[in-house]
């Protein structure tokens, strides 16, 4: 059984970290973009959406070029003692990158849906901008952001290509569930592969169901429970 | 003069341009800016609240300079001691009535607690007879109640002036008369300074204050209530 539990635990750890990082990063970028009035906005948005359409292997290659030992930031990372290639932290970076657009897009849509008049009302009532964000914009966008985060979690859980490129396939250290499935199939261990496929599928279906349940068009019905 | 406004603002969207150029001052406790929609009333109100920065001019309320282009003064909305009643009240949908009223009384990063409420909130709940719906969410209360909550929320922070944007437009006609009387009574009882904008001559009559007429971004004529039968003023029927 440990053939399943160890990769599953690692996958959950990686996906949770990736989702947590994306919640902070994706929400911050989305809020900035939703308030930024510039023609360059859509260009930036397109670039940030690239991870959604580029093959994960290409993203993994970019990560190696940037973060690898001989990469652009490799020497600097080495000096401060951060090792990303062939580590689970590297898998977190890969999953974060791949899932980032899902949080960012959902959060941006949610922020753009917040009535600007409510934010104006908060300003006139004496709040500074940071308080307006935490007390009005963020709570009103919370549902959409959570839905995006669940999608991102499911996507991070299934990350394969970029993870394999940067973190490799080290059983017990960087072998996540999706990588372990590939290894099991290669080794002809169909029983283990089948179980892991089932576990992954069920987890992702649950995440998607939750995300659908939280989606904005249902929010209007449920928000005003008293 | 308790209210002294002289502002110029140039606005352009697509290929339409609009120039707001209004100047008025008044000592009245009930100042009414009257004019058709699109005349620049809301822009004027937003400028006084600090939500819109004029290109030139000054705004003074009760001897405080809120804005002065020549000296570079431009107070943030939170420092203006101005209350703003939005046309559709802009109540926070994620907060209860009591939390809405207490919203401006805490300036930190957290909203007021749902369970505990301070004395000030209790006082305003009583003043507006809202105790019974204190824990309800705005979506669950009536239009008249919503306006009372918005007023209570605006008054809780003890502003120097209350700006009201078409305060009765969102109400059904049956309720309008009652809420006009209520506002009038409240103004007298608490000695509030109001600045109301409206396109409705009935509001002008009911408020019976210093009326200033605005059209196409400019002052039309000063200080006289409009004649009731003045056809062109009825802008609720817009020519197509």
UniProtKB/TrEMBL annotation, chain A:
SUPFAM superfamilies: MetI-like. GO terms for molecular function: molybdate ion transmembrane transporter activity. Keywords: Cell inner membrane, Cell membrane, Membrane, Molybdenum, Transmembrane, Transmembrane helix, Transport. CDD domains: TM_PBP2. GO terms for cellular component: plasma membrane. It is found in: Cell inner membrane; Cell membrane. Residues 8-211 form the ABC transmembrane type-1 domain. InterPro entries: MetI-like, MetI-like_sf, ModB_ABC. The chain crosses the membrane at residues 14-34, 46-68, 80-103, 132-154, 196-215. It is a multi-pass membrane protein. PROSITE patterns: ABC_TM1 (PS50928). Part of the binding-protein-dependent transport system for molybdenum; probably responsible for the translocation of the substrate across the membrane. PANTHER family: MOLYBDENUM TRANSPORT SYSTEM PERMEASE PROTEIN MODB (PTHR30183:SF3). Belongs to the binding-protein-dependent transport system permease family. CysTW subfamily. This is Molybdenum transport system permease.
UniProtKB/TrEMBL annotation, chain B:
The keyword Transmembrane helix does not apply. One of its GO terms (molecular function) is ATP hydrolysis activity. Keywords: ATP-binding, Nucleotide-binding, Transport. SUPFAM superfamilies: P-loop containing nucleoside triphosphate hydrolases. Pfam families: ABC_tran. PROSITE patterns: ABC_TRANSPORTER_1, ABC_TRANSPORTER_2. Coiled coil: none annotated. The keyword ATP-binding applies. Residues 3-237 form the ABC transporter domain. InterPro entries: AAA+_ATPase (IPR003593), ABC_SmlMolc_Importer (IPR050093), ABC_transporter-like_ATP-bd (IPR003439), ABC_transporter-like_CS (IPR017871), P-loop_NTPase (IPR027417). This is Molybdate transport system ATP-binding protein. It comes from Luteibacter rhizovicinus.
